[in-house]
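Entry:
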Amino acid sequence: MSNEKPFFMIENRGFGEFSEADDLLHPEQNARASGDSVTETQYFGFSVPEHNIHALCYLWHHPNLGTLTGGVWVWQGIKRGAVFAEMLDMRTFMNDSAIKDDLHHFTLENSYSVKILEPLKRFHMTYNDKARNNSFDLIQEAVSPIVMFADGNHFEQAMKVTGKLVLRGQEYDVDCYSVRDRSWGKPRPEDIMPVPPMSWVTTVFNDNFSINCNCTDQASGNPELAGSPFDVPEEKSLHGGWVYKDGQVSRVVKAKKSVVRDPESYIPLGVELDVVDELGREFHLSGKLISSCPWETWSNVNMNMSLMRWECDGHVTYGDCQEAMWGDYLNYMASLK
């Protein structure tokens, strides 16, 4: 088992510096990390909430192996598996020749393409599968500053997404908010992790108000964990989070989460999340399920990717609740039935 954890299992204790170069590859930082699982990623998402459509677009580089995983994934409603999605074109094993000229403008063999129009600010995304009448042409434009984590190996950013989506021949206008992220310079081990579910919650309510939080389940909100190996102290359950409001980014320092899940699929039907930022401001987020699809991102983990309708202080938006679960937790839950 690896002694190093991925960024999403490590508490972020502050913010770091960033530059335009952080939208490109990081060969020097990657070279300082060891192991086959050293990872560099680029993630973009989008949605059409009024039609229950959600999407994930990904580039996942293993520089020490010289391989890429990536592509596009768009689904409508609730699916029992990724392969049931209306648009699924994720390639697991590709050589990394597609990014030999860096990330300025790359195109994968499945036609998924991203062009940096303005570093840290604007991006053009396209995809075209004529055989299935699936395509999109989108602009992602930043509405918040880069939120760089303290170790300088991961950032997140609120985005406005506009453009066109064609899904199995049906055309949709895309006009939504999302949160993109990038990671590099750390391993992403595929070990079995004896931990409770981890949720990455993204909410962008408008150009000036966003909340992001990454935390595991807590027994206070999910009492079935009390006294079990998955009973994580509340103060250790928060791994990262931030608030962007009125032009200022602040760190989330406390989170309290309760999740109601479907007893068979474990998708989140509802989420109640209370966060406190370093300025002492308190926010209550309430989320209801709109769309969901599971993804075995690697064989030892299951991730339910869900679009939720979020409310906070009279604001309403649509954003992610991406949840990672490992086999130890799922077997424990099965033993309670």
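Residues 192-337 form a domain with the AttH-like fold fold (CATH 2.40.370).
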